[in-house]
Amino acid sequence: MTPKVGTQLQEVNLNLVQTIADQQITEDRLNLQLTRLRLMYDFVSALNAAQTINEIYQIALNGICPALHTSRAAVVVVDHRHRLKYQESIGISDRYKRLVKDFFYRFKDEIKLKTSLFPNCAALPSDRNLQKFLLDEKIGAIARFPLEYENRNLGDIIAYFDSPRHFTAEEIQLTQTIITYVAIALTRKEAEIALKESQQFIQRIADTTPSILYIFDIEEYRNIYCNQSITSILGYTPQQIQSMDRFLLKNVVHPHDLFKVMEHYQQIRHSQTSDLFVIEYRMIDAEGDCKWFYSQETGFLRNPDGTIKQTIGCASDITKLKEVETRLQASLVEKEVLIREVHHRVKNNLSVIDSLLSMQARYVHDDQALRLLLDSQRRIHTMALIHEQLYQSHDMGKVDFCEYLHRLTTNLYSSTNFNSEQVQLKLDVNPIILNIDTAISLGLIVNELLTNCFKHAFPDRPNGLIEVILQKSAIDQNLHLIIQDDGIGIPKNIDSRETDSLGLRLVKILAQQLRASFDVSTEAGTSFHFTFQEN
After folding, report:
1. H/E/C letters for each residue in 222-270?
2. Is residue 87 classed exposed, middle or buried when 0-12, 13-18 and 19+ CB atoms within 10 A define those classes?
3. Fewer CB within 10 Å: C terminus or N terminus of the chain?
4. Average pLDDT for residues 120-137, to the nearest whole number?
5. What digits encode the pLDDT tens for the residues 37-50?
6. Which residues on adjacent β-strands are paired with residue 78?
7. How far apart are CA 91 and CA 458, in angstroms?
8. Distance (Å) of CA 220 to CA 50, 308, 320, 525
9. CA 310, 313, 317: angle at the middle one, nearest 5?
10. Which of 352, 344, 339, 414 lies closest to 380 in space, CA to CA?
11. What torsion, rounded to 10 degrees, do the Cα atoms 381, 384, 386, 391 define?
12. pLDDT at 343
């Protein structure tokens, strides 16, 4: 072998050794990266599997310590009172934590706990008190890594070292990745906890509501959700209700109300508004007893075509209210029958008195006494007519005064010797409903004044006109009763308000009972104008 060939072989061997060494370095680096990827995968998986915030803190410290080649670290936060709190720690004594917390509380107004940039080294803080605490704990340097996500500070991870040191680019990158994953995990877990607490809060409200809260699927005719109140009201658990599936309505709704409920849901299904829909219906509980419910529902979920798929509603048990309503209706019917019977008996008793006066009149030969008896009969008949109309009315406390006036005036007119060609009786009465007290007083006033008209208005005339007007003012809601004639009028020497006539004195008393003002005009015949409001 020549020297030249030997030299070439030596160079080839050196190149081969260098290549093998480079490949080994590359392979070691790849293996290290694979190991770190596996560790990071396990780290992230552990974060995702954590059930509590404290578990995330523990996993974070277990991940940060190997990455920075230390055995001591802590997670600290500042609460709303600006107090430093150690959430989790490794390798730190309770004494040290207590000293640091007290220090930060005493000087909280002087120390600005601002979020620092990610450090590239570990060093001692500038404050001498903190330096003393650290050195007593045999800590030579610290590094602070802020936990931040979406501009929210979630606390800090503090790493403790025996002496000051700089971090390599690889350590910084790995630590940044760990911190980011921890911050994301904390944010997600806080959101999960807040959502769970919100759901539990809403569920507690739902379960303590005395009514049944539910979500019903109209398309599938099944229950999606109901609160625990259904158990105390109907005896079914929410799970039993949901297991009934499509047969829910047939199983729990009263057969006589099933069609009404189905129509109710079809109406909701095609509604384009967010209105409340109400319905009363009966349901059968687990014991087979019937109960009344009042439900209010509105659309909860719509299909793409706009039809309502699900409703959310509240069903209140109104069984006791229905029972009370039934008893009240029965009681009202009984009272109506009783009041109707009272009116009937009062009318009969007045008729008996009228008959007695008629019998008594047969034995009276004095014309003045006979006229007084006939006047009393007319008054009694006027009151009896009210009770007769009430007996026949649907409303026991109200009188259709228009109808009553027609009957009263017709009876009074028929008792006279006039005919329609001689004296005309004209009524202008609006439909007005009055209570019994007002109607009786007003009826007696009409009776007295019409009787006076018939007796005294037309002594020497072959014809005349009597008008009765009853109207309600649209402005002040006052009632106006006008009784007027075109006869001879009241003589000027007689004061209608101070007369000794029983009839006019009675009119004055009745007007006072009605709290009515009245005016008397004798310019063209006689006119009485009463103004009052019904009490």
Report:
1. EEEEECCHHHHHHCCCHHHHHHCHHHHHHHHECHHHHHHHHHHHHHHHC
2. middle
3. N
4. 78
5. 777 788 888 888 89
6. 84
7. 125
8. 38, 12, 32, 82
9. 145
10. 352
11. -150
12. 61
As a whole number of angstroms, the distance between CA 311 and CA 227 comes to: 15
- Under DSSP, the state recorded for 71 is S
Written as one string, the DSSP assignment of 102-163 is HHHHHTTTT---PPPPPPSEEB--S-HHHHHHHHHTT--EEEEEEEEETTEEEEEEEEEESS
**Using an 8 Å Cβ cutoff, are 423 and 464 in contact?**
yes
322 within 8 A of 292, measured Cβ to Cβ:
yes
Confidence of residue 377 (pLDDT cuts 50, 70, 90): confident
- Give pLDDT tens digits for 228-268: 999 999 999 999 999 999 999 999 999 999 999 999 999 99
Query: Which residue, among 275, 273, 282, has the nearest Cα to 296 in the 3D structure?
Result: 275
Place of tokens 């009784």: 483
Partner residues linked to 74 by β-bridges: 89, 158
Mean pLDDT for the stretch of residues 144-163: 88
Q: What is the mean pLDDT of the chain?
A: 82
- Tell me how far apart the alpha carbons of residues 91 and 94 are, in angstroms, rounded to a whole number: 10
Query: What type of residue sits at position 512?
Result: Q
pLDDT at 118: 46
Q: How far apart are CA 357 and CA 311, in angstroms?
A: 73
Residue 133 to residue 96: CA distance in whole angstroms:
7
Q: What is the mean pLDDT of residues 394-411?
A: 76
Using an 8 Å Cβ cutoff, are 265 and 298 in contact? Answer: no
SS3 9: helix
284 pairs with which residues across the strands?
A: 290
Q: Determine the Cα–Cα distance for residues 323 and 3; give it in Å rounded to an integer.
A: 123
Cα 320 to the chain's mean position, in Å? 21
Backbone angles phi, psi at 445, to 5 degrees: -60, -45
Task: Name the DSSP class of 52.
Answer: S
Residue tagged 């008792």 (tokens): 415
> What is the distance in angstroms between the CA of the first residue and the CA of the last residue of the chain?
143
Give me the amino acid identity at 493.
Answer: N
Q: What is the pLDDT of residue 260?
A: 95
Q: What are phi and psi of 475, to 5 degrees?
A: -85, -55
Q: Is beta strand 308-317 parallel, antiparallel or unpaired with respect to 290-302?
A: antiparallel
